[in-house]
Amino acid sequence: MNESQPPPKNIVLIGFMGSGKSTVGRELHQRLGYPLVDMDQVIEQRAGKSITAIFADVGEDGFRDLETHLLEELNDAAAPRRIISTGGGVIGREVNRAILRHLGYVVWLHAPTAVILDRTAKNRERPLLHTEDPASKIEALMSQRKPLYAETAHLKIDIAELDSDEIATGILESARYFFAGHL
């Protein structure tokens, strides 16, 4: 990675599970026409199984290895501009954070615990929340991850009171300034 080169013009969405990365990614895809890479979907397709099954088979570390490998693939300067929606824990590895920032404009979709809990409560495809007290698990994970999201992101958006259209509009406006400053 050459830090002196301008970043590729990808928009990269990071944030906790349930923060709307996939939904906002689809909205940005619709507006820009850039291909959407939903990392969790790509990993599931390649593995031929759900993230829950991947966690059961190879554990969290094995899943994180798959994320890192996919990020390395995406880090191709010759690739077209894309919208990249990441998994919530992708920022846990230093190498991933460096690749994410190199990929383009990184936007942290931030939501309070109550919003995350509400959005994830009925979803059985969240292996890290398969616990007696999901709210405490969310709090603990958010506490660990917040400084990593902050370190990685160029922009933080508090999404609790916004819909995906409003979030996408904000991202596109700020991305325009970001990319103009890196030409």
Describe the structure.
With 183 residues, this protein is an alpha/beta fold. The protein has one domain: P-loop containing nucleotide triphosphate hydrolases (Rossmann fold), CATH 3.40.50.300. Helix content is 54%, strand content 13%. The protein contains seven helices and five strands. The chain has a five-stranded parallel sheet with strand order 2-3-1-4-5, with helices on both faces. The longest helix has 24 residues. The protein is globular. The two termini are 17 Å apart. The mean pLDDT is 88.
Set down the secondary structure blueprint.
Elements: E1 10-15, H1 21-32, E2 36-38, H2 39-47, H3 51-74, E3 83-85, H4 94-103, E4 104-110, H5 113-120, H6 134-152, E5 155-158, H7 164-180
Parallel strand pairs: 1-3, 1-4, 2-3, 4-5
Helix and strand sequence: EHEHHEHEHHEH
Q: What is the name of the CATH superfamily?
A: P-loop containing nucleotide triphosphate hydrolases
Gross CATH architecture = 3-Layer(aba) Sandwich
Q: What would the principal axes of the Cα set say about the shape? A: globular
